UniProtKB/TrEMBL annotation:
Record keywords: Lyase, Magnesium, Metal-binding
Name under which the protein is recorded: CoA ester lyase
Origin species: Lampropedia puyangensis
Pfam short name (any one): HpcH_HpaI
Keyword Metal-binding: yes
Positions of substrate binding: R73, E126
GO molecular function: lyase activity; magnesium ion binding
Signal peptide positions on this chain: none
Length: 308
């Protein structure tokens, strides 16, 4: 796996830049976003699609040299614009990551993968049909992550949502389920359209984390810091997770109690997921598990459980 492919799998923030505004690319790179999404779809009117493709091709060297993954969101597969984008991608080898909007059929992704087998794909689930087929989509060749496009999903179903968006909980839940069953990296949540509302961004990102999502689409550089802050475990969570992993390593597979609570495999997995939210998390948890317990200080509150 290349470093940029790995970085895409771990990206917490993916910042959109209109394909017609490539002069903003350098600013986007400086924003601290984990990935940049150059948009050929919603941000570009039909009359300017060719202009946007030419503009993106014009910064191919900068894309290749970028320190973070650069994704291009193409137009809907199966449409004339999507076909034109596919042909353009074949002539633009600098593009290694593609976001596919309104993904509805795994066969469409398979066809794209057959033509361009080196592309890493982010499949956007934005319609009722896409949600219906989400498990097949997640398992399609070339898919690197799933993402939620909840605004288009609402439009497709003619729905309205209240505070917290409980009406579309099944969308996020099923995307999370499909992600897990396909063994993909955590899914990416949709945008917070009110980019000046920091509290709403915080609430939206925390909701995404509760669903097990690992990233969020962003429409403005000012959203990046807030998203990253939310994805960082707080000090209490971090301390707990470190103690759990340490206790599990010392127990060498035996069940233990920590602070009067059982530490078994599900608890250890939860702790590992918290630690995995740290940026550039490189701790080898398997090595820690196998480490000589004599070299590990006993965590406070640790009690080994014995069978009766």
């Amino acid at each position: 796996m290349s470093s940029l492919t790995s970085a895409l799998a771990q990206a917490r923030s993916l910042l959109f830049v209109p394909g017609t505004k490539v002069e903003r690319f350098a600013k986007a790179l400086a924003s601290g976003a984990d990935a940049i999404v150059l948009d050929l779809e919603d941000a570009v009117p039909p009359s300017e699609k060719d202009t946007a493709r030419q503009a993106i091709a014009g910064i191919a060297n900068a894309i290749s040299a970028a320190p973070v993954p650069v994704v291009v969101r193409i137009n809907t597969l199966g449409s004339a614009l999507g076909l034109a984008d596919t042909e353009w991608l074949q002539a633009t080898p600098a593009i290694a990551h593609v976001m596919v909007p309104k993904t509805e059929q795994a066969q469409d992704l398979s066809a794209l993968h057959q033509r361009l087998p080196n592309l890493q794909l982010i499949a956007l689930i934005e319609t009722a049909l896409g949600l219906h087929h989400v498990h097949h989509i997640a398992a399609a060749p070339g898919v690197a992550r799933l993402a939620v496009g909840h605004i288009d999903f609402l439009a497709d179903l003619g729905m309205q949502v209240s505070t917290g968006e409980p009406e579309i909980a099944p969308l996020r839940f099923n995307v999370a389920m499909a992600t897990r069953l396909a063994n993909l990296p955590p899914a990416i949540d949709g945008v917070t359209a009110d980019f000046q509302n920091d509290e709403l961004l915080r609430q939206d990102t925390q909701r995404a984390i509760r669903y097990g999502f690992g990233g969020k689409l962003c429409i403005h550089p000012r959203q990046i810091e807030g998203v990253h802050t939310c994805f960082m475990p707080d000090a209490q969570q971090l301390q707990w997770a470190q103690r759990v992993v340490q206790a599990d390593a010392q127990a060498q597979g035996a069940a233990v109690q920590l602070d009067g609570k059982m530490v078994d495999l599900p608890v250890v997995l939860q702790a590992q997921r918290i630690l995995a939210r740290l940026p550039q998390h490189t701790a080898d948890l398997n090595t820690l598990r196998m480490a000589n317990t004599k070299q590990l200080p006993k965590p406070p509150g640790l009690t080994t459980c014995t069978a009766h």
